[in-house]
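Minutes, structural biology subgroup

Action item carried over from last meeting: produce the structure token record for beta-galactosidase (Sediminicola luteus). EB confirmed the sequence was re-checked against the source entry. Recorded below for completeness.
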Amino acid sequence: MRIPLLLVLTLLGLAGSHAQQTQIVYLSGTGANDTKTWDFKISSGRKSGVWSTIEVPSCWEQQGYGEYRYGHYPMQDRVQETGVYKTSFEAPQDWKDKSVRLVFEGAMTDTRVKINGKQVGEVHQGGFYEFSYDIGRFLKIGQPNQLEVTVTKMSENQSINIAERKADFWIFGGIFRPVYIAVSPKEHISRLAIDAQANGAFKADMLLNRFKKADSYNLIIHDLEGNQVHTNQGKIVSDSVRISSRVYHIKSWTSETPHLYTVTVKLKDEGKLLHEKTERFGFRTVDLRESDGLYVNGAKVKLKGVNRHTFHPDFGRTSSKALSIQAVKLMKEMNMNAVRMSHYPPDKHFLEVCDSLGLFVLDELTGWQRPAYDDATAKRLVKEVVQRDVNHPSILFWDNGNEGGWNPIIDDDFATLDIQKREVLHPWESFRKTNTIHYTDYGYLALDNYAKRKLFMPTELLHGLYDGGHGAGLEDYWKRIYDHPLGMGAFLWVFADEGIARTDRNGEIDLDGNHAPDGILGPYLEKEASFYTIRKIWSPVQLQHRYLTSGFDGRFRVENRFHFTDLSTVDFKISWKRFDAQGQEAQVTEAHQQKALPPGDIGWLELDLPQNWEENHLLKIDVMDKTGQTIVTYSFPVNKAEATWSQFIKPGGTTPIQENIEGNLIRVTTGEMVYGFNRTNGRLQRVKRNGKTIPLAEGPIFVSTEQKPESVTYGIDAEGHWKLTTLMEKSGDSFEWRLDTEGRLHLKVAYQPAKHTPYAGIGFRFPEEEVKGLRYMGEGPQRVWKNRMQGTQFGIWDKTYNQTQTGHSGWEYPEFKGYHANLYWMRLQTKNQTDFSVYAKTDDVFLGLFTPGQPEDARQAQAAFPDADLSFLQGIAPIGTKFHKTEELGPQSQLNQFRSANFFGGRLQMELVFDFR
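Output recorded by EB:
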């Protein structure tokens, strides 16, 4: 491919007023959705040995070249793929006597560059780092120039292969980040490193290239609205200049208030402008106080973070600013304030978005569980990281590798290179002031790890394989970390499933077994249930949980967990909702309130109760920021289940009941309904409506203990209702069916569950293949686990049947199958028009919908389900994580416990109403 001279001139914009600025000419595209076509040939694998074309930037696997490999694949079995790229560009006359640098933002993994057949510098080794070459002396000015780039997927440096290529992530090849030419005057500002403190103290190190004539500089600071807020000037006597100043009336940068500024430094010679350079920055102070905590601008901060790979199913590691914005917005939507770059420095635009939207960052040198980069390589690469990223106010810490993949020889190099002297972390290790232990058991959440005075911040806390971890268990862990004075925060593993759309398998999503499906979101950023749980637990506005009884006075205790924001900026939208018999909103009353409350304080939100507020079904409180974005939503059922169920019953008219015995079947008829019950055990065997079978059967079954019937009694009582009572052998447990004269079937159960059980309640059989969907009133629409109850909302929900296995297949959310909380009523929708409803007259009943598929390689990230298709439960199972059984997590992750002498008179009781009419 050839880049024409006219395009170069257009991109340069070499008008006189801009001639002293560094001009950028892209030889590639700018990202995943903006590429340019180069010539390409690969040495092995798919499409090897012949010249074709490729889009740049890209991972060559996604362009149909080479072979896919995950990092765990044995090193000795990997083929060395070498790709040769070719393109051409024109160098206009204006480039003569200029500094011309060819910049690669990232290429995996060893990169050799030639201009017009001549190698322009040393082979660059290291796949996630920006590097550049001075190519001025190799150019043919005013003529086409040939660029040839040879990229090898595996490095000749084995320490790089160990750090980058044998890791727990996908291994791609190619020029995966943009390539451009930077054109500057010979004498120019090559770097500007900034340290801007929250008190307005400003200093910068200015490094000059080919210092010769420059004798002075002018410095100008603007806010992002373009207002000039400060100027300064000084003399230049060497190629390294320290600029110091004080700026007044500034707005400081935080994750909640990401105020940014630009600084422009003009390099001059006797008043003549030689070159100018502009950098974006923020005023903020980071102070990691030993045995105390992390302070930003003087406020103690808790980091609520997630690990994030740069990844997209279609593009691999190639990204774009739009994708960065999407990712950061999703993190902010989860009320996160921090992100860890795992396990390599991200694209520049991702850091820019963290700066502008407000997200604290841990920037990381690559390394993973093995001996790190060799000394020379580590020193070279840490320099490339710090020099590129130093000015981002979002970056709080540097990570020197991950989980043993650190080289201690460079621990002090970060501070030497960094004007801000940020602290260094060893993720997974107790190091200097911090303890970043990974995946600790809850039982050992003493926050010491033999380091009692260290600041505790697991850089990997709960592993999110499939549907385990993340939201499941987080509330217990976070309460302990948040309440402890040395708890500095935590980072979940990981942001999104790293599933690649295989170009050799017609786009099939490949997660390499259980290696890559660890996300809070799916491969295309589908929101899983834990997304909403995290959002609730990490909300900076915390309302107390309470039940709305007749004595409700409209008061909620509210805690401001913002670090820098008063709640006066928050809008509480208060909605009272009433539903009709079809489950539609019949009446909504709305109001808005504000509440001034400083960061960290606790106060009271006092609602103005509407007249007859008890006649509503739902109180919903949406907490919104000043832009109108929802921070979190709280919802409260206004009445108990028993007081609500009758409001939704459709009158059916009174009809007489007839009983007939057909062998072992009791046949009971009323109006259009015919029911069949087993005479031996009392279970429902058959339901027909107008001659059409509704296939709910074989229930109730007590799911936590085996039960044998002792006696079954039945008949029509004095009120004309038909009753059947089954008493269980030895246990004394029982259930009672009552068919009223309107055709509704009532069920009461009294039972003693096992002392330690994953679930407790009753179940029925129903053919899953006949189900189309569900409408229900309860908590939703996401399913829950015993250790993941937060994040759902009370209301009326519609769900379509799906076969999604979280993180494994389907990716249609919310999942249909599983446990659903706080059931008030449900209507099961079927393909054969045999819909029916069930109403709960008992509070806190869980609805169990079938048994979700659970991948065989889920390890401990699985949950128990009763042997039933539809179940109505008073206890449900927790779920484990990849590395932890449920008993190793927190209190909410333990099995349900029942001690008959102390609970409910020795038995749990539940009452349901089945309406098949």
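Discussion: Residues 549-638 form a domain with the Immunoglobulin-like fold (CATH 2.60.40.10).
Next step: EB to file the record with the rest of the batch.
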